[in-house]
Design goal:
The structure is a homodimer. By secondary structure, chain A is of the alpha/beta class. Chain A contains 14 helices and 8 strands. In chain A, helix 3 runs parallel beside helix 13 and helix 5 packs across helix 6. The model of chain A has no long low-confidence stretch (mean pLDDT 96). At the A-B interface, strand 3, strand 4 and helix 4 of A face strand 3, strand 4 and helix 4 of B. Strand 4 of chain A pairs antiparallel with strand 4 of chain B, so a sheet runs across the interface.
């Protein structure tokens, strides 16, 4: 078995029925939120300040196989490399078209990238609003227009993301939109800082002062969110309006995209699915199945059975202990690689191990 | 007859044989060159300074149906609107995916757009270099990477452009690469300022001081060119390497793209064609057929038979007197609309006339 599907299975069949003859394109949305610099919130960077550079370095590495803005690829404080290595290995195998969409990276990546006109770095939500006034709606509209522009009726977009701190802002978005999310979002750390995430959210609520939940989706994102999830939601709205399908390639963060779409009344049935990893679905510290059931039960979750239990490198074996888990579209890429191109897990793993070896050899990864 | 093909016909058949089941995507490359501000060089703007804004306003209008950066759409000093109106009308009919690629617009357009990392406004070539040192190669590499990223083996890219002053810099590029181009490039004016274009080139040669032709393509573009044509050449190189085909949707400017590719040794046979208008092919003030014959005789030229002789608006009838002629992919869009979607010239014309009426009604065009 290469792919698992979280019940109900029939939703997955409805979603995937006509997908095999669709044109698959990968999109990687990147942004920064200063929320990631709160000490302890994110390990998607060697230290809190460096998390701001992670999206930039992730896509530079994805495109060129090496970073450009600084001479490092993103690693955790323990030296575990970015999950972009999984995505890069798969992209290399399937050679599918892909693009980067910059909706607010702290540094513009030195790669060709779609720039949204209102791209902006997100604020640290415990002490300031996430976005300037009206930018939530502007980003949504920018990205919806992008979806309308690039989608064909036969398109299938695999949408990955890179934004450290994203599970915290995703949790906040879901909560203020009226969904129970505290303690249910994932983490790239095996020690999910659930209490800290909740505390950040409580501080944001106090700073806001008004009553929650908020019925105004854009206001909710402006105060409590980030530039990323609202942009992905806008893109999905525009793309599916044109007949495209979207595989949200990510973990619990993507549930906030669904929350935004639902509260805006966008009908995602049969058009949108989540593609992720086993490490997310089996994570006891979070609850992607429950979140989707509460928010959009018509959205199926497919996940790759990819396992690194037999990996020759500690930096990969530690995935089995709850490190990293997902990111930069890794899980969804593995799902679609099987479904569209028939690649076996062995083929994918071999490519990932080769890529890891290359990174070791080039000195970008120290941990073998 | 809806489409004409400049001999030899067999090259067109070789190019187009497998094109009907390709996935068509439109790309609009935009840039500014300060060469357009030399009085008399370009009428692609109400006055020389405004030509710098034309690429930005063209794509804003293309995407939204109205400008955003300023409240005007590009018009000639006589009030004739941008040929983007042809392209917009066709895009609306065929609903094909499209993107904007900013390689050096004077103002970043307020639309989602791919930005190349080394995007830069071009210098006024009679008094300064076109590009900063090494930027010709950097732009080529950026755009080649973009081609590699977004091309599938079934892709057919229709590549249009907007850059006033472009025929002058294209002429200069071809001349310094060793092709006879003086007096052979087109103009959006019925009074092609051939002497002024030649004078600008002579001044650039004098400023340079070295001997021409130049064997170093990147040096040639750095001194005499612009950011646009080298970027389109890079994109073509990357895209066809991935199995894609490209329709260069433009007039004599596109011959400089072919010149760059030929001098870099890129094999374009069966992969690249030019798609343009009858107004370009029949223009007595320029010689697209001769340029292609000299530079890349294996590249076919197809052109739409679109005529505005019976148009209800002077602003369109004047195309028949040599105004505007081509731009923003108009000719290539009409060619592909027929070949891929079977649209008749009547259908296309009706949509264009409707769009013209809308622009009159909205006050963006004064000339009826």
């Amino acid at each position: 078995m290469c792919i698992g599907v979280v019940d109900p299975l029939n939703m997955w069949h409805e979603y995937f029925s006509d997908s095999s003859d669709r044109v698959v394109q990968f999109l990687f949305f990147i942004a920064s939120t200063k929320t990631s610099t709160i000490p302890g919130i994110s390990i998607a960077g060697a230290n809190p300040e460096l998390t701001l550079y992670t999206p930039t370095l992730d896509v530079e590495y994805l495109v060129f196989g090496m970073p450009r803005t600084m001479n490092v690829i993103p690693v955790t404080p323990d030296g575990l490399p970015t999950p972009a290595l999984i995505t890069r290995a798969i992209l290399h195998l399937v050679r599918a078209p892909y693009m980067v969409v910059n909706v607010g990276a702290y540094r513009s990546p030195l790669v060709p990238a779609v720039m949204l006109p209102h791209a902006v770095v997100g604020g640290r939500i415990d002490v300031e609003n996430a976005l300037p006034e009206s930018y939530a709606e502007k980003l949504f509209d920018d990205a919806r227009k992008l979806g309308e522009m690039i989608a064909g009726e036969k398109s299938l977009f695999v949408v990955g993301e890179s934004m450290p701190g994203g599970t915290t802002t995703a949790m906040a978005i879901m909560e203020v939109l009226g969904y129970r999310a505290i303690g249910r979002v994932s983490s790239s750390s095996p020690n999910n800082p659930v209490n800290l995430k909740e505390e950040v959210f409580r501080r944001a609520v106090k700073r806001f002062g008004g009553s929650i939940p908020l019925s105004n989706v854009f206001k909710a994102v402006e105060v409590f969110g980030d530039p990323l999830h609202i942009s992905i939601a806008g893109f999905v709205a525009g793309a599916i309006e044109r007949g495209a399908k979207v595989l949200l390639a990510g973990g619990t963060q993507m549930c906030s995209v669904l929350a935004i779409l639902k509260r805006l009344g966008v009908d995602v049935r049969g058009r949108v699915a989540i593609g992720t990893t086993r490490w997310i679905v089996e994570d006891r510290g979070s609850d992607i199945a429950g979140l989707v059931r509460d928010i959009a039960p018509e959205v199926p979750i497919a996940y790759t059975m990819l396992s690194f239990g037999d990996a020759p490198y500690t930096g990969l074996r530690l995935y089995e202990s709850g490190y990293v888990k997902e990111g930069v579209g890794a899980g969804g890429a593995a799902v679609i690689a099987k479904l569209k191109w028939g690649l076996s897990l062995d083929t994918i793993k071999k490519a990932i191990y080769e890529e890891y070896r290359r990174l070791l050899g080039a000195g970008y990864v120290k941990r073998d």
